[in-house]
Specification:
Its cofactor is Zn(2+). Pfam families: ADH_N, ADH_zinc_N. This is Alcohol dehydrogenase catalytic domain-containing protein. The chain is built from ten helices and 15 strands. It folds into two domains: about 200 residues, Medium-chain alcohol dehydrogenases, catalytic domain (Quinone Oxidoreductase, Chain A, domain 1, Alpha-Beta Complex); about 130 residues, NAD(P)-binding Rossmann-like Domain (Rossmann fold, 3-Layer(aba) Sandwich). It has about 350 residues and is an alpha/beta fold. The longest helix is centred in the middle third of the chain and has 21 residues.
């Protein structure tokens, strides 16, 4: 099969023919229908993710068609499925309590295991997979990736946002844009922060009530003023010190900060305004991914038209275009995300 391989950090991925993957007893082999290009992939591509080494096949935001199933898997050839990027064991106390995103023996394609920048992928622990609704676009399914699922769990499972509350979103990349769209669908009033005017205009078109350029003054103070006292919930969607502190400082007393952006490499440790946490008695949540059992509720909202995630996908590229998309993360990005929709070229 064809696969895009990381040969050296910050260098173009090399497309090679490699052996087809082997199906595990509890898993399936998928023909990859589409795969999202994610900022987390970029963290591995630049060498800042400890589990991504040269020789890796990236890709963790995928959907596909089952072409083979192990004897312990409940899927059959022809089934179309979507996968969370965290493949949990399903047996440990964390999984049994519904908290599979903290499974201590989780497996993550693209991060220590072959990913989906390839024509086929072996997916172990196929109990984590969810069936794609009839007629659901593979490109949109891959676009949900880890960004929509993570935003969904951040808002509903961690922050428990309520209709009428103010939601601040710091960074309008894939996760931030997802949080805006989902937050609006859940009845929240949304303000966004970015440094790209085009993305701020796009957010306003999607229903944000205010959009602030972080380069223009104290953005936290401006959010406090615009929301009449501060946001109830704030999403940090970049994983850097400046936005983490702005997220904390823009909250009203008893507000909830959710750390969604990935702090790794040189941003793994930050200087944080703990006085704001103390004085305003804030709640600080971390979140990563979404438990697989929450897929039906998310997919149901989309198929019923309660939430329209189609504005999220800005462009599709072939496998050979993945390197250019990874390089683009080095600078300000245009609105929306890219999805690989042709794994054959």
């Amino acid at each position: 099969m064809r696969a895009a391989i990381l040969k050296a950090y910050r260098q173009d991925l090399v497309i090679e023919t490699v052996p087809d993957p082997v199906c595990e007893p509890d898993g399936v082999i998928l023909r990859v229908l589409a795969c999202g290009v994610c900022r987390s992939d970029w963290h591995g591509w630049v060498g800042e993710h400890p589990r991504v080494k040269p020789g890796a096949i990236p890709g963790h935001e995928y959907c596909g068609e089952v072409v083979a199933a192990g004897p312990q898997a409940r899927w059959a050839p022809g089934d179309r499925v979507i996968a969370p990027f965290i493949l949990a064991c399903g047996q440990c106390p964390d999984c049994q309590s519904g908290n599979s995103t903290i499974c201590k023996s989780q497996r993550v394609p693209g991060f220590g295991e072959p990913g989906a920048y390839a024509e086929y992928i072996s997916v172990p622990r196929a109990h984590n997979l969810a069936r794609l609704p009839e007629g659901f676009s593979p490109v949109l399914a891959a676009g949900l990736g880890c960004r929509v699922t993570t935003a969904w769990h951040a808002l509903t499972g961690r922050a428990a946002i309520q209709a009428g509350e103010w939601l601040a979103v710091h960074g309008t990349g894939g996760i931030g844009l997802s949080a805006l769209i989902i937050g609006r669908a859940l009845g929240a009033r949304v303000v966004v922060v970015d440094v790209v005017p085009e993305k701020l205009r796009h957010a306003l078109e999607l229903g944000a009530e205010a959009a602030f350029d972080a380069r223009e003054g104290d953005v936290a103070a401006r959010i406090v003023e615009a929301t009449g006292g501060g946001a109830h919930v704030s999403i940090e969607a970049l994983g850097i010190e400046a936005t983490a502190n702005a997220s904390l400082e823009c909250l009203r007393p008893l507000g909830r900060h959710v750390q969604v952006g990935l702090p790794t490499g040189h941003t793994a440790r930050m200087e944080i305004n703990m006085n704001a946490v103390y004085m305003k008695q804030l709640a600080v949540y971390g979140t990563r991914g979404m438990p697989a059992w929450k897929y039906p509720s998310l997919l149901d909202m989309i198929t019923r038209g309660v939430v329209d995630m189609s504005p999220l996908v800005a462009r599709t590229v072939p496998l050979s275009g993945a390197s250019a998309e990874l390089r683009a993360f080095d600078g300000p990005m245009p609105p929306g995300v890219a999805v690989i929709d042709d794994l054959t070229r």
